[in-house]
Structure formats: C-alpha cells, structure tokens
C-alpha cells in the first residue's frame, strides 16, 4: 500500500450487518471507505452520513455483485471517486436454510449468483486493479464445519469461496497482495436472526464455550487486523471466528 495517499477499502454488502460494522471500523482505522449495497440505499446513505459527519471519507455505491457489469462499474466509480483500491472485503451474501430436496432451481441459482459468482466477479476485477501490497478478505461461514441440516446449498456457496481464497492467493504471486477468509459463527444480524424463534436463537448462543452470539464488531475487528500491515504474513488462510464453536 502506498503511504502517500489515504488507503481505500471497498466493502461489499456494507449497508447493514457485518459489512456496516466493517465499514465503521476501517473508517476508524483511517481508510476511505466505499460502501456497496444492493437495494437498501437508505441504510447505505445513513451510514455514509454517520461517517462523513465524523470527518471520515465514505461514499455509497450501488451494485448487485451477482452481475459482472455492475461490479465492473462499481470498481470504475470507486476509482474515479477515491482512487485505486487497497483493500477489498467480499462480505455481501444471503442465507436461506432449506432442505436440499425443497430447494428450487431459482433459489439455487440466486444463492450461487450472489454468494459465489459475486465473489468471483470482484476477485476478477481486483486481480488487475488492486494496488500492489493490498488485502482481500472474503466472508465464509463456520456452518461449513458444522454440516447442519438445511445448510447444503449455503455451505456449497461458501466452500467455493474458501477454494477461491486459497488458489487466488497463489495466483497473485508478485503483487504482495494477501487473500484470506474469515468464517464467522452465528452473528446477531438480520441474516442470522430472520425466521428463527427465540428458542432457536438461544440454542445457537449456547453452542460456543464463550456462551453468546457473536456481534458484528467481533468480526469487524478481525477484518481490521487482516486489512492491516501487521497481518502481512498471513496469506491463503481461512480464519474461523466463532467463540470456539468449531
Ligand atoms: P445481512 O445483515 O443480511 O446483510 C447483508 C448485506 O449484503 C446487506 O448490506 C445487503 O445489501 C448486501 N447484499 C445482499 N445481496 C447483495 C447483492 N446481490 N449485491 C450486493 N450486496 C448485497 O448479512 P450479514 O449477517 O451481515 O452477513 C454478511 C456476510 O457474512 C455474508 O456473506 C454471510 O454469509 C456471512 N456470515 C454471516 C453470519 C451470521 O451469522 N450473520 C455467519 C457466517 C457468515 P442491501 O441492504 O442493499 O440488501
């Protein structure tokens, strides 16, 4: 990363949940942040206002990560507003648990389009456009280690993300860019809480030996470290962050 300019981070799916928390933390760390969202412009703009009112540099950028043309346009916009990107956080994702036999063609395609092709689309742009010395951090999930019923397709999308992480770290040889993934356990966001009873939520909260649900900031502070210069020797790794759940 250059020391002569403010480092620039693009966070996908940063209007809400873990992504918004990552955007706040990276802005506190001194990054200029591009806050990507898909449909919730209000939430994204509110976050931009919160950060800019503190004197931080932030702007929101709409793109459906599933569409390569959107992703290409998003990189163009970030470069023209802020400059070349140093840190890419692939956070946008969806979760809908269903038995495999009840999963429609449409849901299967939507899942892989957003969770997997979305990451492919940004990695392909990043491979030629990220500044040398940069960082890429992908969001996987601890569910991959738990093999719970209902998670077959979601886990499939994240297994691919972990594979991309390991191989892409090698393909970027010579650029001094690291590629890692964080695999959270349950985190109290819309994605996790939607459709669950209080009892189900309590059961998840009791699973890790630390006996609580994760909070978005638990993940944001790990991403902050992986985005920093201090993490430079960690490359091609999957870091499970789940209070000891698995
Ligand atoms: P969330 O609260 O549901 O937020 C999802 C974010 O992704 C929103 O900002 C949403 O934008 C954006 N998004 C959705 N589809 C998109 C698309 N096609 N293009 C661009 N942005 C899109 O989710 P979260 O819990 O923060 O999850 C973030 C990541 O962590 C996901 O990859 C998820 O799989 C992973 N993860 C979460 C948990 C957990 O327990 N929460 C555990 C393990 C892993 P809009 O506001 O515009 O809809």
Automatic annotation (TrEMBL):
Keywords annotated in UniProt: Oxidoreductase
Taxonomy, superkingdom: Bacteria
SUPFAM superfamilies with a match to the protein in the record: NAD(P)-binding Rossmann-fold domains
One Gene Ontology molecular-function label: oxidoreductase activity, acting on CH-OH group of donors
InterPro entries: NAD(P)-bd_dom_sf, Sc_DH/Rdtase_CS, SDR_fam
UniProt KW Oxidoreductase keyword: yes
Family according to the record: Belongs to the short-chain dehydrogenases/reductases (SDR) family.
Name assigned to this protein: 3-oxoacyl-[acyl-carrier protein] reductase
């Amino acid at each position: 990363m250059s020391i002569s300019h403010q480092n620039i981070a693009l966070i996908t799916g940063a209007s809400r949940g873990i992504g918004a928390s990552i955007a706040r933390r990276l802005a506190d760390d001194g990054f200029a942040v591009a806050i990507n969202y898909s449909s919730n412009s209000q939430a994204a703009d509110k976050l931009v206002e919160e950060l800019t009112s503190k004197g931080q540099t932030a702007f929101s950028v709409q793109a459906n990560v599933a569409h390569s043309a959107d992703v290409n346009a998003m990189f163009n916009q970030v470069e023209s507003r802020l400059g070349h990107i140093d840190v890419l956080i692939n956070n946008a994702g969806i979760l809908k648990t269903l038995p495999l036999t009840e999963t429609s063609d449409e849901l299967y395609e939507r899942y892989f389009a957003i969770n997997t092709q979305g990451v492919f689309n940004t990695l392909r742009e990043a491979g030629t456009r990220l500044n040398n010395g940069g960082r890429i951090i992908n969001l996987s999930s601890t569910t991959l280690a738990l093999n719970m019923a209902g998670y077959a397709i979601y886990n499939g999308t994240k297994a691919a993300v972990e594979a991309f992480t390991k191989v892409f770290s090698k393909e970027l040889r010579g650029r001094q860019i690291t590629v890692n993934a964080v695999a959270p356990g349950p985190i109290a966001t819309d994605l996790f809480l939607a459709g669950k009873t209080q009892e189900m939520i309590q059961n998840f909260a009791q699973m890790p030996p630390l006996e609580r649900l994760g909070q978005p900031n638990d993940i944001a502070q790990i991403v902050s470290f992986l985005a920093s210069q201090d993490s430079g020797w960690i490359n091609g790794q999957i870091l499970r962050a789940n209070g000891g759940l698995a």
